[in-house]
Design a protein that fits this description.
- The chain has two helices and 28 strands.
- The radius of gyration is 19 Å and the shape is globular.
- The relative contact order is 0.15.
- A four-stranded antiparallel sheet has the order 1-2-3-4, with no helix packed on it. Strands 5-6-7-8 form a four-stranded antiparallel sheet.
- It is mostly beta strands and about 400 residues long.
- The chain has one domain: Methylamine Dehydrogenase, Chain H.
- Strand 7 and strand 8 form a beta hairpin.
Length: about 400
Amino acid sequence: MTIRMSRTYMALLGSLALGACGARTGLSLDVVGRDAGTDDAAAHDGGPSVSLDAGVRFDAGVLPPLDRPFVQIRAGRDHTCALDEDGRVLCWGDNRNRELALDVVVGDSLVPVPIDVPPTVALDAGHDQSCGIDVDGRLWCWGTVGPDGTTTGPAPMSGLGDVVDVGVGSASVCTLGTRSNVLCGGELGARDGAWSERVTRGARMVSVGSNHACALVDADVRCFGHNPTGELGVPPFIGAPWEGAPTTVPGVRDPTSVSAGFDHSCASTEGELYCWGSNALGQLGIEGIGNGVPPTPVPGLDGAEVVESGWSVTCAIRRGELWCWGDGSRGQLAVGAWFGAHPPVRVELPGPVRAVTVGVNHTCAIDGDGRPWCWGYNTRGQLGDGTRDDRTRPVPVRL
């Protein structure tokens, strides 16, 4: 659940001078993608599945032009948030814990709603909360905020200083500061719930999973927190998440990105894409079931520039193409049918794909035009297409 900085996003950072570092059309496109109400249902019930090479059934020509292209998208448990090039944040899906910054009586939103925060340069979404960094380096969070489970609309977080990166997990938030240090609150913070410095210097990216986090520190990946399946890159051990110094992940040098999922982690380098931790549902992209320690290269995905780890699905962008693998039982792999553990498969989208995010049971990406697409589980409207229908192929978010 790591911040992904595209060229557009980096240009935005420069234009907004951050120190350290659309109108809704109402258009409904029911014909775009293939949903669970059609012949995909046969595959879900054990019937024949479609060819894995089948492309997405879309015609980009029927989509209206975007008012503002999107540069970042982040998936939580049952909600999704996206950031456009003008710094606006939109969210959709579950609002039971004010994930959409609305009163809880409002309920879910099947289409994006704006979040009342200052112009934003980066964001992340976790289990039932989201956080964004404004142009002045302040961190704003909404949803379930605080160890007591308090829910709130957007509120600035105190005691952090200027923030340049943020990772949000199930019950923790970690930030990267201008001193290249990492502070964490929640389960990965101090025993009393206060912010705790987990990395003192040299950090340049942070990602938070369910109960663990990983950071790029100098030329290494360092992880800390729970480790029951080897998600820290070393043999499993049991311990409180706030105890112990970060471990250096063996065999992964000069990483370019890192992502912590539910019980696994992945990192890309100039040469290989590595994953480690649980492989119970194929989320490491390798054969076999069990824990993958030490880190293992994902076959056929060398040179991937971006990697995203979710609950039990992993996705990577390689040369503008999107590849996903792991649990497809809710349609998260976009292959047109439901599958269990599955090796890497290419997701057909208008390229080159700019960004990807993986939630608990849904996946979203931004295409080459800056348009967000989502697929998978949709019971709370987390796909943003105006319905609650599960989708086994990408559908455009209704903007």
